[in-house]
């Protein structure tokens, strides 16, 4: 996996993935930015949610669950000192579908957390407390 991050101006950077996709990172005006992009730590949080959501959807599809939507709301706390690392992340999955098995959804969330999501497992091994809940929405 490769990526490039290039300084644009002030505290704005352009990140490009090895697959050719780009994202703007910028800081708030208080730190000399223009608030035109995500903060790097926001990207890390979103990437973790994306990684875990990808797993949950894939696992449920393989289990032949009739899933129609998956959303994860995330709440993170960070240390008050520098470096302001994540201390905890809570992930709440809202899984929609028809006749979804609660056992299968619970299993998919647990497998992502314990076995498949590289991002959350890496953060956990660095001491971040990661918790998960879920709800099923009939559609």
UniProtKB/TrEMBL annotation:
InterPro entries according to UniProt: KH_dom-like_a/b, OsmC/Ohr_fam, OsmC/Ohrsf
Gene3D superfamilies to which the protein is assigned, alphabetical: 2.20.25.10, 3.30.300.20
Pfam families: OsmC (PF02566)
The protein, known as: OsmC-like protein
Species assigned in the record: Pseudohongiella spirulinae
């Amino acid at each position: 996996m490769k990526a490039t991050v290039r300084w644009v101006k002030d505290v704005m950077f352009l990140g490009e993935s090895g697959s050719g996709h780009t994202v703007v990172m910028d800081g708030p005006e208080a730190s000399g930015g223009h608030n035109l992009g995500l903060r790097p730590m926001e990207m890390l949080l979103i990437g973790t949610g994306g990684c875990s959501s990808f797993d949950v959807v894939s696992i449920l599809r393989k289990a032949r669950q009739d899933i129609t939507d998956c959303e994860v709301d995330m709440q993170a706390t960070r240390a008050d000192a520098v470096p302001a690392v994540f201390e905890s992340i809570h992930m709440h999955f809202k899984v929609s579908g028809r006749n979804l098995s609660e056992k299968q959804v619970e299993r998919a969330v647990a497998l992502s957390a314990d076995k498949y999501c590289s991002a959350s497992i890496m953060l956990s091994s660095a001491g971040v407390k990661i918790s998960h809940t879920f709800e099923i929405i009939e559609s």
